[in-house]
Amino acid sequence: MAELAGVSSRTVSNVVNGYANVTERTKARVQRAVDELGYRPNVLARNLAQGRSGQIALVVPYLDTPYFSELLQSVIRAARARGYNVLIDQTDGDPEHERAFIAHGSRRLLFDGVIFSPLGLDQQALADHDPNLPLVILGERSSDGTFDHVGIDDVAASRQATEHLLDLGRRRLAAIGDQPYATGEAAQLRTRGFREAHAARGLTAREDLIISTPRFNRKDGAQAMAALLDLPEPPDAVFCYSDLVALGAIHTLVSRGLRVPEDVAVIGYDDIEDGAYSNPTVSTISPDKEMIATTAVERLLLRISSPTPPPALELRAPHKLVIRESTAGRVAVP
Amino acid sequence: MAELAGVSSRTVSNVVNGYANVTERTKARVQRAVDELGYRPNVLARNLAQGRSGQIALVVPYLDTPYFSELLQSVIRAARARGYNVLIDQTDGDPEHERAFIAHGSRRLLFDGVIFSPLGLDQQALADHDPNLPLVILGERSSDGTFDHVGIDDVAASRQATEHLLDLGRRRLAAIGDQPYATGEAAQLRTRGFREAHAARGLTAREDLIISTPRFNRKDGAQAMAALLDLPEPPDAVFCYSDLVALGAIHTLVSRGLRVPEDVAVIGYDDIEDGAYSNPTVSTISPDKEMIATTAVERLLLRISSPTPPPALELRAPHKLVIRESTAGRVAVP
DNA sequence: GTGAAAGCGCTAACAA
DNA sequence: TTGTTAGCGCTTTCAC
Questions:
Q1: Domain limits of chain B?
Q2: Is domain B9-41 annotated with CATH 3.40.50.720?
Q3: How far does the CA of B75 sit from the C1' of C8, in Å?
Q4: In terms of pTM, does the model score above 0.85?
C-alpha cells in the first residue's frame, strides 16, 4: 500500500495513529503519499489486529419510548466524542433476547462493551453474564459487584412526587405502574416511595388504589385510569410511574369530562418532552438524562480500557421535581 | 483451534456457516468439538476475510423525533431478521456530518450500506457520494439514479390534508413548516400540495399565512402559531407539516384560551403515537412506516448483494388520512 | 527513528 | 467430501 510512495509500513501505521516517534520529514512524506493515493485505513483489519471493534452496544427494551430515545441521543453524542460508535438494539423486554446480549456469544467481539437497560431479566439472570464483557446497567437494579449501575434514587424521587400530591391537600392517592414480580424492581421502588411518603405523614397508602401495569406506556395508563374511575370512590390524585402512563391517564380523564387537576391531579415520571407541551402540561420527576448517559459511557469506556476490572460502582444521577399544570393548574394567560 | 479436537479447519468453517457439502458424520464430530471447547467464531476475523461487516447504518437528523424513533424500531427489526446489525447515528442536520457518512471515508468499511434521511444536504451534495456505497434515501428527495429512494407521495398527502380542512368549511387556512431553500424540498412539496388543494377548488392559498420554520418540532410549532394569532385576521384552520408542529401549535392555542377545533382546526403529519393520546387528539397524515422501513432495508440489502448496481428506484409507500379530534371535534362520551 | 516479519482468526481458491 | 494454504490489511515485537 502507501509505503510504495515513500517509506515503509510500520511508519505509516505510526503516522496514521499519531504515535510519538516520527520525524517531521518522514511524517510529511507519508502524509503526501496518503493524500495522493486517497488512502483510507481498513477498519476491519485494524479491528482484527487490535482485537477490539471500537463499538459499544446500547440495549434497551423499547426505542419508541421517548425516555429511551432521549437518552440514546446523549449516549451517541458521548460515545462519538470518545471515538466510539453505538450499535443499538431493542429487546422488547424479551428475556432470551436480553440474555443473548450479555452472554458469551458469537456477537461478543462486535462491541467492546454494553450499556444495558434490562426489563425481562431478573437479578439472578443478570448476574449470569459473560464475566469478560464490560457492562453498565441502567435503571433500578442493584449491582452484584460485576458491573456498574447508573440510575437515580427512585425511592426518594417517588416519595417526593407523592409528597407533592399530599401537599396539594389530596388524600385519595392512586399509583399506576406497580409490577409485583421479580423483574419489576424498578416499579417496586416507586411503590415503596409512594408508601413511605404516606407513612412519613402518619397516613396510610390505600393499597386498593395501587394499580399494576405490564408496561409503562400510554395505553396502560389509559386503561388503568379507566379502572380507577370505575371504582365507587375514585382517587383525587394519581402518581404515574412514567410520563407516558400519565399522558394516557390524562387522556382518559379528559375524555370522561373530568378536569385535571381540579378533579384529579396527575404527576408523571421521566420528564419527556411531550409532557411539556401536552394539555395540560404534566408535572413530573426529571432525571438528569445527560448525566446518566455520559456517566454510563464514561464508566463503560473505563471498564473497557482497564486491564483489571475496576470496582463496581452504584452511581446516582440527580433528579428534580418539575411542577406543571397537571398538578398546579393552568396559569392565567393575559 | 477446534480442528484439534477432530478434523480440519476448512471443514469447521463449512459447518459453522452451514455450507452444503459436509457428511453428517463429520458435521457431528465438528459440532461436538465446538460444544466442548465453547468455540465462538471471531466476527472481526470473519469480517476482514469477507470484506464485509454485516452492519448497516441508519443515519437520521434527530433521534428524539418520534417519527424517526418509530421508524428506527421497524428498521432494526427488519435488518435483524436478515442477519444485519444496525449502527445508528444522528446528524443534527449538520451538512458536514451528513457528508462524512456518505463520502468515501475511513469508516466506510464499518457498514455495508446506509439508509439515510438527509436534512442539511441539498440534492447536489447528495449526488456526490461514494459511488460504491449502497445507499437508500428516505424522505422527500428524488433519486439521481445512483441510489434508491423511499417515501410517500407528499404532494398528494398534503393536498388531502388541506382538502379535509376545506371540507370543514374553513377558508382562512394557514400552513406551518415551509422551508423555502435548497435543503427544504420536503417542506416545499407539502406547500405545493397545500396550494394545489386550494387551486382545485378555485380558491387561492393565502401566501401570508404560510409560515416557515427551521425545524419540525413542538417549539417551532408553538412559536409559529403565536405569530399567526397576532395577525389582524388569524386563520381558522392550520395544516402543520409534522405532528410535533401540530402539538406545539395546539399548545399555543389552548394556552391562549382558544378551542380546537371550534375556533381553529389543526391537522398534522406523520401519525406519531403522541397525537393519538393528546388533548385534543390530532388529525394527521399517516405514512405506512412499517412498509417504509422494510422496503428500505430490503432494497439496501439487494444493493449490497448485487454484483452490478440494480436500477435506482423511486418507491412510494402508501399513506392515509386519519381524522381525530383536532379537526372533527370531540366525540361525546356517555 | 525506521524496517522486516510475524501474527490477529477467519474464508475461499485450489488440490487431493 | 475434506485438507492445504494463501491471503484479508492492519498492528506490533524485535532488530537495526
A1: 9-41, 51-152+288-318, 154-287
A2: no
A3: 33
A4: yes
